[in-house]
Specification:
Blueprint lengths: L5 E6 L19 E2 L1 E2 L10 E8 L4 E9 L19 E7 L6 E7 L5 E8 L5 E4 L8 E7 L4 E9 L12 E12 L2 E6 L15 E5 L2
Parallel strand pairs: 1-4, 1-14
Antiparallel strand pairs: 2-4, 3-13, 4-5, 5-11, 6-7, 6-12, 7-8, 8-9, 10-11, 12-13, 12-14
């Protein structure tokens, strides 16, 4: 298990969703994604940062990634974004690894949301009924710099309960990148397989005062 198994989420007060280059992101530690199976550094660098605004009831996520080739043809929400370029966040606000949320955003701000449930027999079931009213995303690709930046706004109201100081949610963070080199799968906590759905490898998102 990575030494970065815990990620500290700090509280901030904002006037709205921060831009990717807002200085407020300096308050959040950078989490680096690794090659999903081996845990080694991937070909392209990707980092994420997470902050929260309790007064606004919002969780904010930022991705910054090296990106030399965009591959994303989906234009409708809840299409299978995970088959092309995408950033992903899996989280369980209850701590139960048999049930967790799956949130994905393409380079063109197309959104996929769903609930994952494991039956007692170990079968994974996807329920697409879960949505996030008030979710906003803003993704920008700088072709000259080979860089993609994305910011997400996730309202607390979409989850079973708002986080409080001292709470810890289970999470993992992912990226799928397609290029002429092939398909690279990245994870904050490497799963040991070319598969993101390994909840026992999730880390913790610690909400501190």
């Amino acid at each position: 298990m990575s030494e970065n198994v815990r990620y500290t989420c700090y509280p901030v007060t904002l006037k709205g969703m921060p831009a990717a280059d807002d200085a407020v992101w300096d308050k959040a530690p950078a989490g680096e994604l690794l090659e999903v199976e081996s845990g080694r550094r991937p070909f392209l660098y990707t980092e994420f940062r997470i902050l929260r605004d309790d007064s606004a009831g919002m969780l904010y996520v930022r991705f910054v990634a090296e990106d030399d080739c965009l591959h994303s043809t989906y234009r409708m929400d809840d299409e299978p974004l995970y088959t092309q370029d995408v950033f992903e966040l899996f989280l369980s606000e209850t701590g139960a690894l048999s049930d967790y949320r799956e949130i994905e955003v393409s380079p063109f701000d197309v959104i996929f949301t769903g609930n994952i449930h494991y039956t007692p027999q170990g079968e994974r079931v996807l329920n697409m009924d879960w949505d996030i009213p008030g979710m906003k995303t803003l993704t920008r690709h700088d072709r000259a710099a080979n860089r993609t930046e994305a910011v997400w706004q996730l309202p607390y109201a979409a989850f079973a309960a708002a986080p409080r100081a001292g709470d810890a949610w289970r999470i993992n963070v992912f990226r799928v990148d397609h290029s002429p080199r092939g398909i690279e799968l990245q994870a904050w906590q490497a799963t040991g397989a070319r598969n993101f759905h390994v909840p026992e490898r999730f880390g913790w998102l610690d909400f501190i005062a």
